[in-house]
Amino acid sequence: MIDNARALETTHVPQDLEHREGQIDQLVTDLSPIAHGLSGEHTMIFGPSGTGKTTLAKFVVRKLQEEAFGVRRAYHNCMSGSAETAVLHGLVDDSGLGRHLPQEGVAANRYIECLRESDDHIVAVVDEVDVIDDETTLIGLSDLPNVTLILITINENDFFSDPRFDGRVRSRFNHCEKVCLHKYEQNELEDILWARIEAGLKPGVIDSYVVEYIANMAAGDAREGIILLRRATMRAIDADRTEITVADVDAVETSAREEKRQVHVDSLGTHKRTLYDIIERSGTISSAELKETYKQRVSSPKSRSTRNRYLDALENKYGLITSTGVTKGTVYQST
Q1: Across-strand partners of 73?
Q2: What region holds the AAA+ ATPase domain (predicted)?
Q3: pLDDT recorded at residue 34
Q4: Which of 13, 195, 222, 273 has the most crowded Cβ, counting Cβ within 10 A?
């Protein structure tokens, strides 16, 4: 049944991106000066979860690497580490430039120098940039002549209205290039699923009405649709059948959504994961109790404003928790 299992993974970057032609052209234009030895345009990508923001960035950078020498991609998701050194270490490590550097005990300026000293041009993709702890990290990166930034987050207004970002950040990035992605329509998501099916499965193993059913269940979220497809495929294989059915999709709906949730949980950095674990294990917990428990569990607790930003991300970006009440009366619970 399977020709290429990787094509059914959400992290797989396909050979072609469906229904993102205009955004691809825009990002290609922003990065094209790099192929001629110049700096690219710093770019921000906005859009709801599951619209392919990260895939778009990686797809276009890969395209650039295929067409030009001396281009490196550096990727980091700030949900897995949002402190300045964590962001810089993640970028340097992913680029392959700093594998000789230890993860702990390295000053931020050493990572910056590692990037600056590279003969290659680095396209630094900073995902979930809205949860970054130190906004000056972005200024330091954007000052490097051999680094072009792609910053990814959900909402443009929320990012630029964040009081943490001072005038330098706003002036530097408010007028940079912007790429906006919309949630996929039903027919668009069906096309995306068919592209994955053609790349990963043998012909004739799934009917069009089953693909339509998956797309409808995923409700415009490509990540969820791909997980549903992969899990339904695995169920059919386990049952020693050669066709994927609607019954397979129904049977894996809960586990697919749990997988999507667990991917988010596994990506959390130390402090975000600690906050989540406390809430998840408590079921329901007050803001005051959460603060005290958190401070007992970590050696260098984050400030209240930073904790609140992390909690907001856990709730509104990933849907891992919910909250009721305001300020000190807030109560958190896991979803």
Answers
A1: 123
A2: 39-180
A3: 98
A4: 222
The first and second tokens of residue 229, run together, are 């497809």
What CATH number is given for 268-334 in this structure? Answer: 1.10.10.10
Tokens of 17: 């991106």
Token output for 156: 């443009």
pLDDT tens for each residue of 275-308: 999 999 999 999 999 999 999 999 999 999 999 9
Q: Distance between CA 159 and CA 170 in Å, rounded? A: 9
Cβ contact 231:257 at 8 Å: no
CATH topology classification for 20-180: Rossmann fold (3.40.50)
The per-residue pLDDT for 77 is 97
Which residues have a Cβ under 8 Å from the Cβ of 317 and sit 6 or more positions away? 49, 79, 128, 154
Residue 74 identity (one-letter amino acid) = A
The model's pTM: 0.93
Q: Which ranges of the chain have pLDDT less than 70? A: none
For residue 58, give the H/E element and its range. helix 53-67
DSSP H or E stretch at residue 187: helix 186-200
* Fold of domain 186-262: Helicase, Ruva Protein; domain 3 (1.10.8)
Q: Are 197 and 234 in contact (CB under 8 A)?
A: no
Give the tokens for residue 283.
């079921």
